[in-house]
Amino acid sequence: MTAIMPISFLLNGRPVRLDVAPGRRALDVLREDLGLIATREGCGSGECGACTVLVDGETRLSCLMLAVQLDGRKVTTAEGLGSPASPHPLQTAFAEHGAVQCGYCSPGMTLAAAALLARNPSPCRAEVREALAGNLCRCTGYVKIVDAVMAAAETMRDEDDRP
Ligand code: FES
Ligand code: FES
């Protein structure tokens, strides 16, 4: 019989507690148990970045994490960045710049960009490309994605400057 382990963590700002089998991946628990399907499974082997989440503000590949590793952590998925009714500036910029094509990579891209902008609010294009290097998009040449991140960075700086 497989032991079940209780875990609790802060998910998109809300406390979550659930029981998981020790071998289950964080990606599956987020999608299947918690219904947060913006976190995608692409390769399932750490190559594509589609499953990116933020754990304590750092990008992590949820296909390579066990759910038990989320215990006690602060976890953010794309749903926690913003919603259709109240999108994050990155999500708005991705839509406005045509950076969302099939959209499969977009949640991971926006989370990787959010982590970058949290530590560097004024990145150059090369720094954006470097931050997104682990997130593969098969649809574009990345120009629109970099454009979107640069635009969102500007929007967020403007918002921060507001009295
Ligand atoms: S699904 Fe995790 S890196 Fe591709
Ligand atoms: S928009 Fe299709 S893989 Fe990125």
UniProtKB/TrEMBL annotation:
Its keywords, alphabetically, are:
2Fe-2S, Iron, Iron-sulfur, Metal-binding, Oxidoreductase
Q: Which residues form the 2Fe-2S ferredoxin-type domain?
A: 5-81
The entry lists its GO molecular-function terms as: 2 iron, 2 sulfur cluster binding; metal ion binding; oxidoreductase activity
UniProt key word Oxidoreductase: yes
* Stored PROSITE patterns: 2FE2S_FER_1, 2FE2S_FER_2
Q: Which PANTHER family match?
A: OXIDOREDUCTASE WITH IRON-SULFUR SUBUNIT (PTHR44379), XANTHINE DEHYDROGENASE IRON-SULFUR-BINDING SUBUNIT XDHC-RELATED (PTHR44379:SF8)
Q: What is this protein called?
A: Putative Carbon-monoxide dehydrogenase (Acceptor)
Classification from the root reads: Bacteria, Pseudomonadati, Thermodesulfobacteriota, Desulfovibrionia, Desulfovibrionales
